[in-house]
């Protein structure tokens, strides 16, 4: 909407008359670019399943966004690119064999209920992709926690998995396939020895992504590459991811020191599940995270504590807690914003927290 | 005399494209006297001056044409000799109308000087302050605060530091820069007069590190000055020229909310104001002309013009070779805090530091999408406010919600809107919110 003026008239507007050139669309494009390494890895690991889920989710998100805006008689918002990110992130959070119609249902929920109902981009209190995933976890619990092995992973990861304990091997057989965190939770519940994943070859698999999990979350290497891009482009700051990961590491390290027999070592917690994807790409969602640097630190620590509580409390139903941790902290964002406002220049105390 | 890096830097701020090369190399050029001057009565902060001449009067250059109308006000003098042809309304840069004395300049220029004080070092401060006030000197950095008031702090507010503001952090503008290069000696005398009046121990000349030649010129001019004098080199960052931010950068002191620089023992004067003080005290010349940078990609020959206060923008544009291509936006001042004007029939005043003509391709697009809460405005705000939250309160007409978020502390520097990826007109919202609060306060005063 460039102000169009007839050549003999002057444009009048409030100052400033200069702008840095940044736009919402450019930020969204940067996030999409940053997700590409992880997407490439998921295509390699999960092959057409990854392509299918990503295509379905992105298409369903875009279509839902368009329909909602039309129904609400508001300007189309497809061009801001946020629906593409929601689609990609949702797909990244799905197990490879999930039926297509479930992916569509989750996408529609993410865009229509978690985003457009509130007014669209900027007004949604919860990260739409995570809200969509939470909806799917509750509605399609079985399908969302079934980890069909991709033929490639079967060969590499679980051959290495046999290098751990006997009990783990039993667990592998019993569950046909599970995520590393799934193993750990089962072992914890059954009182079986905790798999240590100390084998170096296995750690390499963790790092590259040769483990079971959602299609976009398994490759630490690819996620870190994308995260580096976001940090260099200053789309995100270090505060949320560092606070989040440091909290998880510290929590896991203390737990592992106190009870080594029933807990995973801290590095496994860092590389497992959706933690890296969540810490760099979803907890940093601008709309649903705090405004100030201090607020971001509080938010990251909160995400870390809740993630570890869900992961390690024996009676908990879920082996993984990243999605719920971020969603719960999303709910606290307005409160954190209120509590962490900067001290205004020239004042002694912090600004009134009304 | 020393040169020191600024010991502090305010938090926040931005780095816009400075675009100073357009006019920085152009020496100050005196504008040929226009045939007609439209001298506004409001060229300063406070009450507009009251005209003391009427249509038909003949005036000499430097003659008083309007007297100060209160404590926070300043008199206005005739920039040139001629005949008063009318006292009529004129449009000013801010978009408000005000009365103006219209003078048809005479071919024969007669000048009526004010008294001079060559022995200012031995002159009583009070007398100098009165003289500077009578010469109509006001802050030339933008706000136009009467210098007389700044130089008369109450006795319980001792001033230990005078800061000479040569930051000129607004992009495009180079008038202060040229003044420092071409009138360093006069600026030094002006600064010493100010220091003498205030009895201040320290003098700091604050210049951003993107103007090494101005730093060198000031070092040279002040080299044999007595006492605690230093050029403080500021990190180039907008808004280093803002009074509160500059005091912090130079001294580490924060002007308390609602307070004035004198509350932390400081007085900040623009380098051009120091020149005006020199001119008034040593030459007996009231403030009737100033250097204005005429620049932008839509002006044929960018220039720094010494022009009488009351010159129409159209005369400035003509003196710079006219419009190049198409001017889509004309800004009085710089791109960060200047006012977009609707016509070139606007006169300059004592605070007019720049006239910026931008072509259609240089116009920034503020389309106002929803806030995505990225927090960049919070990082950029040099007052450490939360523009994201403030603007949303004001958009929702929740002024009561915005006020406790320190709405009134906003200095309207534009850093927030500059960085906003959603291109929200944040300063516009702030101004509207502040106007509502001011109106409410005024109404509350009237009905106790």
Give your account of this protein's structure.
The complex is a heterodimer of chains A (354) and B (448). Chain A has 354 residues and is mainly α. Among the domains of chain A are: 24-144, no CATH class; 237-338, no CATH class. Chain A has helices at residues 24-46, 48-71, 82-92, 100-113, 128-139, 141-144, 151-161, 166-175, 180-190, 200-208, 220-232, 239-258, 266-271, 275-282, 293-312, 322-339. The longest helix of chain A is centred in the N-terminal third of the chain and has 24 residues, at 48-71. Mean pLDDT of chain A is 85; it is low at 1-6 and 150-176. Chain B has 448 residues and is of the alpha/beta class. Chain B is built from 14 helices and 18 strands. In chain B, strands 2-15-14-18-16-17 form a six-stranded mixed sheet. A five-stranded parallel sheet of chain B has the order 1-12-11-10-13, with helices on both faces. The longest helix of chain B is centred in the C-terminal third of the chain and has 21 residues, at 426-446. The interface between A and B is large, with 47 and 70 residues.
Question: What's the helix and strand layout?
Answer:
The complex is a heterodimer of chains A (354) and B (448).
Chain A: H1 24-46, H2 48-71, H3 82-92, H4 100-113, H5 128-139, H6 141-144, H7 151-161, H8 166-175, H9 180-190, H10 200-208, H11 220-232, H12 239-258, H13 266-271, H14 275-282, H15 293-312, H16 322-339
Chain B: E1 2-5, H1 21-24, E2 28-30, E3 36-40, E4 50-51, E5 58-59, E6 64-67, E7 76-77, E8 82-91, E9 97-105, H2 125-134, H3 147-150, E10 161-165, H4 175-182, H5 184-198, E11 202-208, H6 212-221, E12 228-234, H7 243-251, E13 266-270, H8 271-283, E14 289-295, E15 303-308, H9 313-319, E16 329-332, E17 339-341, E18 354-358, H10 376-380, H11 387-395, H12 399-402, H13 415-419, H14 426-446
Parallel strand pairs in B: 1-12, 2-15, 10-11, 10-13, 11-12, 14-18
Antiparallel strand pairs in B: 3-9, 4-6, 5-8, 6-7, 8-9, 14-15, 16-17, 16-18
């Amino acid at each position: 909407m460039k102000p169009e003026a007839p050549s003999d008239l002057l444009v009048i507007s409030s100052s400033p008359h200069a702008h840095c050139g940044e736009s919402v669309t450019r930020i969204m494009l940067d996030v999409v670019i940053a997700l590409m390494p992880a997407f490439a890895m998921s295509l390699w690991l999960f092959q057409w399943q990854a392509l299918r889920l990503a295509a379905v989710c992105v298409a369903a998100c875009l279509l839902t966004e368009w329909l909602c805006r039309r129904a609400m008689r508001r300007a189309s918002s497809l061009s801001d690119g946020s629906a593409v990110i929601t689609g990609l992130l949702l797909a990244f959070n799905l197990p490879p064999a999930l039926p297509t119609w479930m992916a569509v249902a989750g996408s529609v929920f993410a865009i229509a209920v978690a985003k457009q109902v509130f007014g669209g981009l900027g007004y949604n209190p919860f990260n739409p992709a995570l809200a969509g995933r939470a909806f799917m976890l509750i509605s399609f619990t079985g399908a969302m926690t079934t980890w069909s092995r991709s033929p490639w992973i079967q060969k590499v990861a679980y051959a290495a998995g046999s290098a751990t304990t006997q009990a783990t091997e039993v667990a592998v057989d019993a569950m046909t396939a599970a995520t590393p965190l799934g193993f750990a939770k089962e072992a914890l519940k059954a009182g079986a020895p905790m798999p240590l994943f100390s084998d170096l070859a296995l750690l390499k698999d963790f790092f590259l992504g040769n483990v079971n999990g959602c299609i976009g979350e398994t490759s630490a290497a690819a996620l870190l590459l994308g995260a580096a891009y976001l940090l260099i482009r200053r789309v995100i700051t270090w505060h949320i991811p560092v606070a989040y990961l440091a909290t998880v590491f510290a929590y896991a390290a203390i737990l592992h020191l106190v009870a080594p027999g029933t807990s995973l070592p801290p590095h496994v917690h860092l590389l497992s599940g959706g933690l890296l994807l969540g810490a760099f790409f979803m907890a940093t969602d601008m709309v649903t995270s705090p405004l100030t640097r201090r607020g971001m630190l509080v938010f990251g620590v909160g995400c870390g504590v809740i993630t570890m509580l869900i992961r390690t409390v024996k009676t908990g139903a879920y082996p993984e807690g990243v999605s719920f941790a971020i969603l719960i902290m999303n709910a606290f964002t307005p409160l954190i914003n209120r509590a962490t406002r900067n001290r205004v220049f020239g004042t002694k105390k912090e600004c009134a927290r009304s | 005399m020393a040169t020191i890096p600024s010991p502090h830097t305010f938090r926040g701020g931005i780095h816009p494209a400075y675009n100073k090369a357009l006019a920085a190399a152009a020496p100050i050029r005196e504008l040929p006297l226009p045939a007609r001057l439209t001298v506004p009565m409001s060229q300063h902060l406070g009450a507009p001056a009251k005209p003391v001449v009427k249509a038909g009067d003949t005036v000499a250059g430097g003659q008083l044409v309007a007297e100060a109308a209160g404590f926070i006000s300043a008199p206005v003098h005739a920039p040139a000799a001629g005949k008063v042809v009318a006292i009529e309304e004129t449009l000013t840069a801010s978009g408000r109308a005000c009365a103006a004395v219209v003078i048809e300049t005479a071919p024969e220029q007669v000048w009526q000087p004010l008294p001079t004080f060559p022995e200012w070092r031995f002159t009583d401060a009070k007398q100098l302050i009165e003289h500077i006030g009578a010469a109509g000197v006001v802050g030339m950095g933008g706000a136009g605060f009467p210098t007389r008031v700044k130089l008369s702090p109450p006795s319980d507010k001792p001033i230990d530091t005078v800061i000479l503001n040569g930051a000129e952090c607004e992009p495009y503008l180079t008038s202060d820069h040229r003044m420092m290069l071409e009138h360093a000696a006069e600026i030094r005398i002006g600064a010493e007069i100010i220091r003498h009046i205030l009895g201040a121990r320290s003098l700091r000349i604050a210049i951003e590190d993107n103007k090494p030649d101005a730093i060198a010129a000031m070092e040279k001019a002040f080299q044999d000055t007595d006492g605690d004098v230093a050029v403080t080199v500021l990190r180039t960052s907008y808004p280093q020229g803002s009074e509160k931010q500059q005091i912090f950068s130079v001294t580490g002191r924060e002007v308390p909310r609602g307070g004035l620089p004198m509350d932390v023992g400081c007085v900040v004067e623009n380098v051009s104001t120091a020149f005006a003080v020199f001119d008034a005290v040593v030459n007996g010349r009231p403030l009737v002309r100033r250097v204005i940078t005429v620049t932008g990609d839509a002006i044929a020959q960018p220039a720094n013009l010494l022009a009488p206060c009351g010159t129409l923008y159209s005369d400035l544009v003509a003196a710079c070779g006219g419009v190049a291509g198409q001017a889509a936006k004309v800004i009085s001042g710089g791109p960060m805090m200047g006012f977009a004007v609707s016509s070139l029939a606007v006169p300059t005043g004592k605070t007019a530091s720049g006239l910026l003509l931008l072509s259609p391709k240089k116009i920034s697009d503020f389309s106002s999408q929803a806030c995505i809460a990225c927090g960049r405005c919070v990082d950029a705000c040099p007052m450490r406010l939360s523009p994201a939250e403030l603007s949303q309160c004001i958009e929702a007409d929740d002024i009561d919600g915005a006020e406790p978020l320190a709405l009134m502390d906003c200095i309207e520097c534009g850093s927030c809107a500059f960085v906003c990826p959603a291109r929200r007109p944040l300063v516009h919202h702030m101004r509207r919110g502040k106007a509502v609060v001011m109106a409410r306060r005024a109404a509350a005063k009237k009905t106790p």
